Amino acid sequence: MRGAAIERVRAAAYRIPTDGPESDGTLAWDATTLVVVDVEAGGARGLGYTYADAAAASVAGGTLADAVAGLDALDPPAAHRAMAVAIRNAGAAGVGGMALSAVDVAIWDLKAKLLALPLATLLGRVRQAVPVYGSGGFCSYAPERLAAQLGGWAAEGFAAVKMKVGRDPRADPARVRAAREAIGQAGLFVDANGAYGRKQALALAEAFAESGVTWLEEPVSADDLAGLRLVRDRAPPGMDVAAGEYGHDARYFRRVLEAGAVDVLQADATRCGGVTGFLRAAALAAAFGIPLSSHCAPAIHVHLMCAADTGVHAEWFHDHVRIESALLEGAARPRDGTIAPDPVRPGLGLELRRANAERFRV
């Protein structure tokens, strides 16, 4: 078909309370903000979203809407370039980059809808489904809730589950042992969100290995590439070091990979430049022969991970699962520990349940 000029971009923010206090190694929160973007062209509407401050909606519906107006919805990379120029002074990382990510996702969704294809098919699907790991286990949880949540995912057939650590390093080994008892033989991942120092991370990695932990995420700051490399080189056998969720462009992912800082690269389409940015991260991971894992937002990443050559699994993050299940019609549900794109619905296969969302609008 011929091109379809982008006619309208709209954005709105929704602040959804959590179902209890939540914290990780470096942050505590009681609500999550979903920023939703609609892009219209050729009689169709694409949907994208990010999890960011509500200010991202203003950037998406203002600066970025102006940048992509009249551009071809069938050429998302061109729109991505125009947006990257437009947010130069707003900043490619943080709110500006997250707004760009949401608009980019919406344009890719729109393109796939105009072509009447699921997004995974448009991108070149290499697998039918992607494994998911349950992710939650917040530092704020009482032991009973930690065990119930992680054990529940294991009972549902998830191959692995992930818990937060780092809020109280002295208590972390005992919390990890309790998690191991709750999940049986399922894989156990831990995420420190950069809370540890280098030597502290090495000591705790040894302690976690006693409970069969096989994944250590952001043991030190994701900006400390030398520290990540140190932990990766000295971590117990069988324990992968992972990072990348805060990467906002291909240059960051390339630096991580060139530094040999990770065993598994993470990327988040709602932060790293949308589908366009995620594809670049996936290409770099493939070029370096490094496994790729998606961070959060499973309703988007189910399509992207099914098209990623070195993709290994997607994160089934408690907060985002709650939100996407409630507010996004068509959000994927796990079956036997995997999720798969709808083979019939075009694009991402998602529609915002606007009546449900309206009470959370900010």
What does this protein structure show overall?
By secondary structure, the chain is of the alpha/beta class. The protein has two domains: 8-116 and 353-358, Enolase-like, N-terminal domain (Enolase-like, domain 1), CATH 3.30.390; 121-352, Enolase-like C-terminal domain (TIM Barrel), CATH 3.20.20.120. The chain is built from 13 helices and 14 strands. The protein has helices at 55-68, 76-86, 95-114, 119-123, 143-155, 172-183, 198-209, 225-234, 250-258, 274-288, 298-306, 318-327, 354-358; strands at 8-23, 28-41, 44-51, 130-136, 160-164, 187-191, 213-217, 240-243, 264-267, 292-294, 311-317, 328-329, 338-339, 351-352. The strands form three sheets. Strands 4-5-6-7-8-9-10-11 form an eight-stranded parallel barrel, surrounded by eight helices. It has a three-stranded antiparallel sheet with strand order 1-2-3, with helices on both faces. Strand 7, helix 8 (225-234) and strand 8 form a beta-alpha-beta unit. Helix 5 runs parallel beside helix 6 (172-183). The longest helix has 20 residues, at 95-114.
Q: Helices and strands in order, then pairings?
A:
Layout: E1 8-23, E2 28-41, E3 44-51, H1 55-68, H2 76-86, H3 95-114, H4 119-123, E4 130-136, H5 143-155, E5 160-164, H6 172-183, E6 187-191, H7 198-209, E7 213-217, H8 225-234, E8 240-243, H9 250-258, E9 264-267, H10 274-288, E10 292-294, H11 298-306, E11 311-317, H12 318-327, E12 328-329, E13 338-339, E14 351-352, H13 354-358
Parallel strand pairs: 4-5, 4-11, 5-6, 6-7, 7-8, 8-9, 9-10, 10-11
Antiparallel strand pairs: 1-2, 2-3, 4-13, 12-14
Helix pairs in contact: 1-2, 1-3, 2-3, 3-10, 5-6, 7-8, 9-10
